[in-house]
Write a structure and sequence with these properties.
With 293 residues, the chain is an alpha/beta fold. It has one domain (14-286): Metallo-beta-lactamase, Chain A. The protein contains ten helices and 15 strands. The chain is globular. The protein starts with 13 loop residues before the first strand and ends in a 7-residue tail after the last strand.
Amino acid sequence: MSIADPSIDEVPAIEVVLLGTGSPLPSPDRAGPATLVRAGEATLLVDCGRGVVMRLAAAGVVPPMLSAVLLTHLHSDHITDLNDVITTQWVMSPTSTSLPVYGPPGTAQVVGATLEMLRLDQRYRHDHHDDLQHPPDVVVTEVEPGATFEVAGAAVSVHRTDHRPVAPTVGYRVEHAGAAAALAGDSVPCDELDAMCAGADLYVQTVIREDLVRLVPSARLHDICDYHSTVEQAAATAARAGVGTLVLTHYVPPLQPGAEDEWRALASAHFDGPVVLGPDLTTASVPRAAPEG
């Protein structure tokens, strides 16, 4: 396992980029929850928090390059900029090109409402551009735990997570070239999360610091503690599942510069593997296995 080094020319089996490490709490430095997964020919966007298209561009990706969007759940902070992904993919594609979107039941309703919201914008662009007379082509597939599918050569499986009362919520396991990345979204520990992460090279988990959240005199903020994994719980999941590297994101409260070692120490008390966390665009990768012989 290695943290990606842009000076290395070798293409990894799987690469994960934390596009947005923020949360519903606005931050000048952190975009909303979104993760990019590169697996061979597959370029997958997991969730679409605020600022996601800007962060995609910083990672060298524009929306027409996306193979698919995978939504873990339909909380607003995870889908805020889905409309920007849809519109930018549409206007930047030279011909009509579909955008596959996978997500839990309810995803079709959200996409349909988003397209309705964009209807006036689409009319303006139709009226102005002779070569843009087709509508956005968003192909929605609602998925349930146990579903499997392939995107551009990467195998994806769908797993139940526990973010109740938000339901249903799902996580995704992406496998390619003998490597696996488990992307949980918001969830507390549960048996299905352990199963999704079992033996994964990378496990990406949204986390909170309950000790810091409790210092804020807000019942509404305290409510988040019962449906998000703490740093310690994510580390314990990683240990039980035997993952290679734990990748933390969606920091609540925002991870302050210089506090990385403090957060990492909380995880390392429960998990003895590498723990990756940091600013937006932090990257972790799984190198390709060396050829036998």
